[in-house]
Design a protein that fits this description.
heterodimer, A: alpha+beta, D-Maltodextrin-Binding Protein, domain 2, Dipeptide-binding Protein, domain 3, 2 domains, seven-stranded mixed β-sheet, six-stranded mixed β-sheet, 16 helices, globular, B: mainly alpha, MetI-like fold, two-stranded antiparallel sheet, 12 helices, 1% strand, Peptide/nickel transport system permease protein (chain B)
């Protein structure tokens, strides 16, 4: 059946030229309603509610079921969604949101300011893994009417405005959650949102089905009738499913990097890297600064000179990344400091610095032996570790690459602190306060809290800056503080930023959508539509 | 009376074996570094002390190990497999959701391997040293030596990507919304590649075993005397050779049903088949110990029961073997 259709289309195309078929040019201009989008989700989400679980797969599915107060455009500026407008008082201590009227939860109940207040007080401030620092300064939440929310803060918190989308601050329906054990609420697995798609079915290990929300507030949207997220655990099978047209849409670098280049050449597919600006992932490694040898900043700087970030970007990551000079990625344009100390690739200088630091080669040619651990999120991280091993070898440092699963890795780095060099990645998010400073704050050292300070770096000056930026109302002053933060940590060098990573999507050519939002990967599919006349199937 | 005594003894044996496995599993799995809360926080890409504490309390991980153990044993003795906090569902529900897919895949591939392997083995033995035997033995050796996942990927590339005859993976075409017979046919189409992939290794093993076994039976005295009595070749095979030759194959079958869950992990992953093997594999990496212990307990019960079944089958195939 499928074979017949495919050969029919290719024959038609070869006779008339696909672009000349009537209807194709027409369809390209105006969104077409209907159709089922087959998307790939991997790994399978744990729950479908991003408010209680910020893992990437949960965010991808949840983003179409829930709306945020705002979305973020490619320049990371907020765009109205459930909040139609908002204002911040001059002292930064009061933030007022005006909510969109007439919005309904999928079960028909009205969405009101009470939902926002309840979720802020009971989820964002208490159990949300990322938002406690962001919303912790909110003292009271007032709801003078159903469509107004007023936050009173003990101190200004500008980062709030960077974390208001459906992933950063997902609003839960109060009427289904109030008085329940939030983490064990059954609606976490069959969510009721306000978004463009309604949760329909989750067949575990197999697929998740969402259907069009006929009462969606953004009239005329969504265009698609159904979205099916298929769980496909094997990378080669994901490539095959995209290639045969069994799947139209896959996010978060769904296929091995070397396959991406091949798939991009197929006329039926495209590979894009937009929609990740809000995430702004950066790849880096932590030095364990309490290990003899690595406790010396000179030695850390020397090792940094031994690393060719261009080679990592081009060879190890197949071009899906740019060399990083600072822990604040350049996509956070306002905060990024391009004048930080740089450590250009220079093995001779690295060797000289090691000599200077007193690490002379021993009889066997080695100066130092150490272990490299890497986060086991795929071959690319392992290859990064192998590259570092070679790079260090060139300057007389013998490294052994060590493998383990995720649970063992986070315990080793963040709990036991039994490592020398540990490779991982963080999402920086739109404000460095949310995703960057956590790697440097001394408060979390050795407490077995993943994705915090792995290096063991403890600098009171840096701690002071980190606490100052949280309560500063003047954005210009915050930016200055973040810049001096970058200068300090890049000369002390407890961690070495390697790449600004570029995640990619593989999309069917027939899948159409306007330019992606800056948080599209965790956003909704309300603007997506299928141009069936050029469907490769 | 002897039979009753036999069954009572077997039952007590089974209970002790299963309980022993459960206790060993519990402590073995708790040796793994990290816990479910740190995995969840790891996946979340962010964590705070309050979040970790809330997760540990939710999972019961804040309790001392002996209390966790007492709870676990108490649950087992009351036939309760516990709750998977990670998935938010009772372990039994999760297992029952996945069990049909796994039974279908295992049943089909074992049936394919057992029937195909026995037939090919008999054929090779009857043509021993000639063309058919050489071809069958070589191909069997090839499949015996090739890794499962590699066969799976090659089959996908050939039959799904190049020829476009069969689907890449999954268990059904969700988009089409089939029902009834159309649905059954759709599932069957999805079943072909994973069942063949999982079955080929065992097919090869049974072929080689059956060939050797038939050859050894054929050289026995009672076959010669049957031939001397004038029993025709076909009846000789069916009545005298195959039943005797099957015994070692049945033994192998019993051993392999126990280990097939391991092979199913790979095949279910490559073909996105929503079965138990994958569930167990993922539970291990997620440190979802309640779920993993539940799956291991169920599979240990299956293994014990299959062993019992094999013992029964012996006495059917060869009435000289007595139960005890």
């Amino acid at each position: 059946m499928r074979l017949a259709r495919r050969s029919f289309i290719s024959k038609t195309a070869s006779v008339t030229g696909l672009g000349l078929l009537p209807g194709v040019a027409f369809a390209a201009d105006s969104p077409r309603r209907g159709g089922t989008l087959s998307a790939i989700i991997q790994p399978e989400p744990v729950v479908l509610t991003a408010a209680i679980n910020t893992a990437a797969p949960t965010g991808v599915v949840s983003g179409s079921i829930f709306d945020g107060l705002v979305d973020y455009d490619a320049a990371l500026q907020p765009v109205p969604a459930l909040a139609q407008s908002w204002e911040t008082s001059a002292d930064g201590r009061t933030i007022t949101f005006h909510l969109r009227p007439g919005v309904l939860w999928h079960d028909g109940q009205p969405f009101t300011s009470a939902d926002v207040k309840w979720t802020l007080e009971n989820v964002w401030k208490t159990i949300h893994p990322r938002n406690q620092a962001t919303f912790g300064k909110v003292e009271t939440v007032l709801t003078p009417d159903d469509h107004t929310v007023i936050l009173h803060l003990s101190a200004p918190s500008l980062a709030i405005l960077s974390s208001l989308n459906s992933n950063g601050a997902q609003i839960l329906p109060r009427h289904l959650y109030e008085g329940t054990d939030v983490l064990n609420n059954p609606y976490n697995n069959k969510p009721i949102g306000t978004g463009p798609f309604v949760f329909k079915e989750w067949n575990r290990g197999n697929y998740i089905v969402l259907e069009r929300n006929p009462h969606y507030w953004d009239e005329g949207k969504p265009y698609l009738d159904r979205v099916i997220f298929k769980v496909i655990p094997d990378a080669a099978a994901r490539s095959a499913a995209l290639e045969t047209g069994e799947a139209h849409y896959a996010v978060l670098s769904p296929v091995p990097l070397k396959d991406a280049a091949r798939l991009a050449k197929l006329p039926s597919l495209r590979v894009t890297t937009t929609g990740y600006e809000w995430v702004s992932p950066w790849l880096f490694f932590d030095f364990n600064v309490t290990r003899p040898g690595l406790d010396n900043p000179k030695i850390r700087q020397a090792l940094a000179h031994a690393v060719d970030k261009n080679a990592i970007a081009k060879i190890v990551w197949f071009g899906f990344g740019e060399p990083a000079i600072s822990p604040v990625p350049s996509s956070l344009r306002a905060f990024h400091d391009s004048t930080v100390p740089r450590y250009d690739f220079d093995p001779k200088k690295a060797a000289a610095l090691l000599d200077e630091a007193g690490l002379k080669p021993r009889a066997d040619g080695n100066r130092l032996s150490l272990f490299i651990d890497y986060i086991p999120y795929g071959d690319d991280f392992k290859r990064t570790a192998e590259y570092l091993k070679q790079a260090f070898k060139r300057v007389g440092v013998e490294a052994t690459v060590r493998s383990q699963d995720t649970a063992a890795y986070t315990k080793r780095v963040y709990g036991d602190r039994d490592f020398d060099i540990a490779i991982t990645w963080f999402a920086a998010f739109a404000d460095p306060q949310i995703g960057v400073t956590r790697a440097y704050s001394s408060a979390s050292i050795g407490k077995n809290i993943p994705w915090t300070n792995g290096s063991g770096y403890n600098n009171p000056k840096v701690d002071q800056i980190i606490s100052d930026v949280q309560g500063e109302a003047d954005q210009a002053k915050r930016i200055e503080a973040f810049k001096s933060f970058q200068q300090i940590v890049m000369s002390d060098l407890p961690t070495l930023p390697l790449l600004e990573m570029k995640f990619f999507n593989v999309e069917a050519a027939a899948l159409r959508h306007p330019p992606a939002f800056g948080d599209q990967v965790y956003g909704s599919l309300r603007d997506f539509w299928l141009d069936i006349s050029s469907d490769p199937k | 009376m002897a039979s009753l005594h036999y069954w009572a003894r077997r039952l007590i044996q089974i209970i002790f074996v299963v309980l022993g496995i459960a206790v060993i599993n519990f402590f073995l799995l708790h040796l793994a570094p990290g816990d479910a809360a740190s995995v969840l926080a790891g996946e979340a890409g962010a964590a705070s002390p309050d979040y970790m504490a809330a997760l540990r309390a939710q999972f019961g991980l804040d309790q001392p190990l002996y209390i966790q153990f007492a709870r676990y044993i108490g649950n087992i003795l009351t036939f309760n497999l516990g709750f998977s906090f990670r998935q938010g569902l009772p372990v039994l529900d999760l297992i029952l959701q996945r069990l049909p897919a796994t039974l279908l895949l295992m049943g089909t591939s074992i049936g394919f391997a057992f029937l195909g392997g026995s037939a090919l083995g008999v054929l090779a033995a009857r043509r021993v040293g000639r063309g058919a035997d050489i071809v069958i033995s070589t191909v069997a050796l090839l499949f015996y030596a090739t890794p499962l996942f590699w066969i799976g990927i090659v089959l996908v590339v050939v039959f799904s990507v190049w020829l476009d005859w069969l689907p890449v993976g999954g268990m059904s075409s969700i988009e089409s919304g089939y029902g009834g017979i159309a649905y059954a046919l759709d599932v069957a189409r999805h079943l072909v590649l994973p069942a063949v992939t999982l079955g080929l290794f065992y097919l090869a093993a049974y072929t080689r075993l059956m060939r050797a076994s038939v050859l050894s039976v054929m050289s026995r005295d009672f076959i010669r005397s049957a031939r001397a009595r004038g029993v025709d070749e076909r009846r000789l095979m069916r009545r005298h050779v195959v039943p005797n030759a099957l015994l070692p194959v049945v033994t192998m079958l019993g051993v392999q049903i126990g280990s097939i869950l391991g092979g199913a992990v790979l095949v279910e992953t490559v073909f996105a088949w929503p079965g138990l093997g994958r569930l167990a594999f993922e539970a291990l990496f997620q440190r979802d110990l309640n779920l993993l212990l539940g799956i291991l307990l169920c599979s240990s019960i299956i293994v014990v029961l299959v062993n019992l079944g094999v013992d029964l089958l012996y006495s059917v195939l060869d009435p000289r073997i007595e139960l005890n």
